Amino acid sequence: MISSQKRVVVGMSGGVDSSLTASILKNQGYEPTGITLSLWAEGSRCCSEKDVLDAKKVCQTLRIPHYTICHQSRFQREVVDYFVNEYARGRTPNPCVVCNERIKFKMLLSKAMEIGTHYVATGHYARVEHDQESGFLLLKRGVDEAKDQSYFLATLPQAMLRRILLPMGSITKKQARESARSSGLHVKDKSESQEVCFVREGEQESFLERRIGNQNGEIVGEDGEVLGRHSGIYRYTIGQRRGLGLSQRYPLYVRALDDKEKKVFVGREDSLLKKTVTIEGVRFLARQKGRAVEVEAKIRYGSPPCPAKFELLEENRAKLTFQVPQKAVTPGQLAVAYTGDTVYASGWILSGQ
């Protein structure tokens, strides 16, 4: 009888990374069970019927069990409603981060407990390592810097990190493709989705409009002059230049959104630069090193980590003071602070100055 320590539930999306995760773990002597989460039907690009069939076929190739779990109502409540409400408030949400914490890992861990399995694994490019001195399970960047996905896991609590396996964090994306080919996985060349998975490509604005409606308001310049009108602040995000419908002698960018007065504030590019970022809902993923710590921080997934000072404030907030001003600090996005290649803390952006 195989110990629960060698059994692992693998979250399988039908893509190459999760498929190879299952293959690697089986080759390492684990007993994987593939689980596909079917969470959204309307225009889904992450759990479509084809994705489910791809995951099932991979499990057949690997000769491991596969199950599909459907829970669209919970996904609607925890992720889609959050996504819509944040845009309605003039904030830019990060549904992938929220889904990982509230849905994916919770559901996978619940299924693991149900079938007597200790570990859960996914295809994220990140690493989890035990720090003997502090006792923490440290979340670290993946070895492939261009593909590193530690950002998307930077809100997971220690209780989850203790039961997570991330084999993809130790290889590069190029190596993953090569390994998938040599393993005979039919998804070896399958493309990846880069957009919000539950919204059809190019249809985010109409998706939000159906759920929020029109919110007519003013577009205001830096001197307070009304430059135009809009039909919903959810159609804009900080730093946006295109689609403003304004004719000026110089480029204008969205610099702030006011959900109370339904105003869109625009300005020149230099108005987007902020040196200080306040974050809320701070979560430490490593032992605290004091109230002020030198870190490298990123204010969105696609931005590079930049030197900053992390200062803990009251009410579970913190301040990040960057050496170089950051462009388009966006309320609602996750900021992640690193010490070396380790995630030190994370928090949701409240404002920038």
Task: Describe the secondary-structure layout.
Layout: E1 7-11, H1 16-27, E2 31-38, H2 49-62, E3 66-70, H3 72-88, H4 95-114, E4 119-121, E5 126-130, E6 137-141, H5 158-161, E7 164-165, H6 173-182, H7 204-212, E8 217-220, E9 226-230, E10 253-258, E11 263-267, E12 273-284, E13 292-298, E14 306-312, E15 317-327, E16 334-339, E17 342-352
Parallel strand pairs: 1-2, 1-4, 2-3, 4-7, 8-11
Antiparallel strand pairs: 5-6, 8-9, 10-11, 12-15, 12-17, 13-14, 13-16, 14-15, 16-17
Q: Can you characterise this structure?
A:
This protein has helices at residues 16-27, 49-62, 72-88, 95-114, 158-161, 173-182, 204-212; strands spanning 7-11, 31-38, 66-70, 119-121, 126-130, 137-141, 164-165, 217-220, 226-230, 253-258, 263-267, 273-284, 292-298, 306-312, 317-327, 334-339, 342-352. The chain is α/β, with parallel strands linked by helices. The protein has a six-stranded antiparallel beta barrel. A five-stranded parallel β-sheet has the order 3-2-1-4-7, sandwiched between helices. Strands 9-8-11-10 form a four-stranded mixed β-sheet, with no helix packed on it. Helix 1 runs parallel beside helix 2 (49-62) and helix 1 packs across helix 6.
Keywords, please?
alpha/beta; 24% helix; 17 strands; EC 2.8.1.13; disulfide bond; single chain; 353 residues; 6-stranded antiparallel beta barrel; Elongation Factor Tu (Ef-tu), domain 3
Brief summary:
The record marks 124, 333 as: Interaction with tRNA. By secondary structure, this protein is an alpha/beta fold.
